[in-house]
Design a protein that fits this description.
- This protein has nine helices and twelve strands.
- By secondary structure, the chain is α/β, with parallel strands linked by helices.
Length: 320
Amino acid sequence: MPDAYGRTINYLRLSITDRCNLRCRYCMPETGVVQKNCADILRYEEFLRIVTAATELGIRKIRVTGGEPLVRKGVIGFLAQLATLPDIDEVALTTNGMLLAGQAQALKDSGVGCLNVSLDSLNGKTYAEITRGGDLERVLAGLDEAQACGLKIKLNMVVMRGVNDHELLPFAALSLDKPWAIRFIEYMPAIREPDWRRNLVSGAEILAELGRKYPIEALSGGRYCGPAKPYRIAGALGTLGMITPMSEHFCSSCNRIRVTSTGAAKSCIFNDDSVDLKPWLNNPLKLRHTLVQVISAKPAQHHFGTGLANREFTMSNIGG
């Protein structure tokens, strides 16, 4: 379905839980966040009703997110149900990878075609510091399993100055002999940080750094590519991607809406407005009409960048 600015909205990000087994420093405070009451989290059958209504409006790709979606019981069966819905071209999953080992084949068998794995360091100590306790070896083992069973892999690295920006070249080098998409994401102040800009490394800086080592060529994006600007090191098996929400907004190519674990629909991750879908879960016509309103209200661009010291949201609640 086209929105008011002519963008084709064909992609739904679906957060199925606000729970997470990590406390990544750019995602939530060290003490965590107040978790939603279990009674407020939608049941799988309710998510399926939302997705069914969304497909009738032209949604063709579903990405299941969290929190960490693999912590929710029954997720494999739910993913299999999603994959069998008419008109769904792609079911993808975003994960931190901590629970991926031992489940990769089941994810593949369920119909998941692509994994987005959040991985911000290839150094075990740095990784543990960023995630506040994550085990890099567990994530790498899960990635090996995912590659072996044929899952398409995207690695998402949030680049932070003075924290992991010295690892840009090792991450890019992963694309040389692996058919992975290595995506570099600008730091966003998702928690209250008055001096957040000190962490920001712009996409232009990242690309320049990579270009000093490797010959980089720009690629054209696919129909579900969304905000990532794709590149390739000449001759590499995999690709690179730049996601620049702070230095160069990607709103003109945004093709998605979001639904949180409690059934709030959002047209933009940075927009405070949301629409509660719960009252219409048993009314397919009204549910579809409400989603039309969400798409129609999608703003031309976000204005995240003004008064940020007083602005706060948590990725675990919204769905990243």
